[in-house]
Design brief:
3-stranded antiparallel beta sheet, 230 residues, mainly alpha, single chain, 2 domains, Arc Repressor Mutant, subunit A
Length: 230
């Protein structure tokens, strides 16, 4: 809404300023690296299932990234919708309307037929967001691409490898399952798409720096989250 900001999105740097709209696919690694002193922005996280329900007629956009510079009138309208959500209760309907409006702006400003994202990447983003348990080879077959070609284009477009992205989605699903009351780690690991709990444990330890039991059953998670509080 004001100022400038630099994000790291995968392995790519993205600079944004007043009037720009960005959306990241579910699980897309991104970080706010630096800002100008006068930066002011709205940030909102939307569960993929909620996004799918809201965008019923536009499913190809659910898992697709977005970066567009808006004209002044469109930017002001979007700002008003975003401001109406801050510090309010019962915001589902307001968020749904904002998300619908954001994708109306996508169609207005971004010609999907001319997007720089490869068609294989768009296909597999949608597939892997729905089925993160699918092996990379199966994802390539479903996207009607060779694994080599798919992996090359995915890494270029998303800024990380398909293997890492798929791993991230499975970890996010595991955390969500535990948060929803599925306390059995082995069962949750299987439901999240891991072949075994030992595989889940190994990947979790590598990505998070601790075991699943340490993360969920000690105060470590709260300490990690507190470290990112503004």
């Amino acid at each position: 809404m004001s100022g400038t900001a630099t994000f790291r999105v995968g392995e790519t740097l993205v600079k944004a300023s007043k009037g720009e709209l960005l959306a990241f696919p579910p699980g897309q690694e991104h970080a706010l690296l630096e800002t100008s002193p006068d930066v002011y922005l709205f940030a909102i996280g939307i569960h993929p299932t909620f996004s799918s329900e809201v965008l019923r007629g536009d499913q190809d956009c659910v898992a697709s990234p977005l970066h567009a510079r808006l004209a002044s009138d469109d930017w002001q309208a979007l700002e008003a919708r975003a401001a109406a959500i801050v510090d309010r209760d019962g915001i589902d309907q307001r968020v749904a309307e904002l998300w619908e409006h954001a994708h109306w702006l996508r169609r207005k400003y971004v010609d999907q037929s001319n997007t720089t994202m490869h068609v294989f990447t768009r296909r597999v983003l949608k597939l892997v967001s729905e089925r993160p348990e699918m092996a990379c080879e199966r994802l390539a077959q479903s996207a009607r691409a060779s694994l080599c070609e798919l992996s090359r284009n995915f890494h270029r477009d998303v800024g990380t490898t398909l293997v890492k992205y798929r791993t991230r989605l499975r970890l996010l699903r595991l955390i969500r399952l535990i948060d929803e009351g599925n306390g059995n780690l082995a069962a949750a690991a299987k439901s999240a798409g891991f072949g075994s709990y030992s595989q889940c444990h190994r990947i979790f330890q590598s990505e998070m720096g601790c075991s699943p039991r340490q993360f969920f059953r000690t105060e470590l998670r709260e300490a990690m989250q507190a470290a990112y509080e503004p």
